[in-house]
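Q: What would this chain look like folded?
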Amino acid sequence: MKQRQPLADIWLISDERNDAMLERSLRALPRGSGFIYRHYHLDGPQRWARFRALRHIAKSRDHTVILADSAQTAREWGADGIYGAPLSLYPTRSGLIQLATVHSMRELAQAQRKGADAALISPVFPTRSHPGGDVLGPARFRMLAKHARMPVIALGGMSADRARGLNWPRWAAIDALS
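A: My prediction, written as structure tokens:
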């Protein structure tokens, strides 16, 4: 793996609904956690300005900062890596951490072919992001994770209690960490 630091165990993911709490949430995370900045709801200049402010706080806490965008934008904005669907990742080494969103065995195989550094397998549990949507559940999550040749981050309805119950060290959340 090409990370400049060990892969974080806890990841906060930004969303329009947790935007007002992000400064506090970033400061409350254990030092050296991860932050995935999405903020798809903002236009270019607003998205960049918000990223800069949050990156400053995240870096003051030694958090890894990942941008849901292209490698070029991530480098220009000073992010540590990129986040997205496996096919949006770069098969050649970009010098950035690459986190893939994975919902199926097909996407896991794509992430592995692209050389992703980690897979966020989801949704493990029901989420507010996709109310009433299909979930993997613990058994299907573990089956996918077992086939991963990279670290796996559990996503979807995750909280500290659910991570402990799942006995999974790496997890990400929007609501539970906000």
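The chain has a mean pLDDT of 93.
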